[in-house]
Design brief:
114 residues; mainly alpha
């Protein structure tokens, strides 16, 4: 599984998972819808996904040479989350306003973007 640790692979998979720009994601994270979904932890009132979204904005703006091992670990986590979450697409509800979509968007992926 050493291939998983390849920085180029991690960046590519992160880029495939995250289809929102830093600006789109930043604006989304300011919305009530963004804050309304996800599991809250640590008493901060912020969900894990929302916190991750802020980190993703930083990663999108970071230069390749400035990325740390921690950054790569988070990029891998984002890719894994988006893959798992996409597989759970709801069949019966309106995707556009679903908690499923909002959660994905907190992680930088808008399933309605072509």
């Amino acid at each position: 599984m050493a291939g998983d640790d390849d920085p180029d692979t991690i960046r590519r998979e992160f880029g495939e998972a995250v289809n929102m720009t830093a600006k789109e994601l930043e604006e989304w994270l300011e919305t009530e819808e963004s804050r309304s979904v996800g599991q809250k932890s640590g008493g901060s009132g912020e969900s894990t996904g929302h916190e991750s979204g802020r980190r993703i904005v930083e990663l999108l703006r970071a230069r390749k040479d400035d990325l740390t091992d921690d950054d790569y670990a988070h990029m891998r986590k984002v890719h894994g989350y988006v893959q798992r979450h996409l597989a759970q697409e709801p069949k019966k509800e309106d995707v556009e306003s679903s908690k499923w979509r909002y959660s994905l968007m907190n992680w930088g992926h808008d399933p309605l973007k072509g």
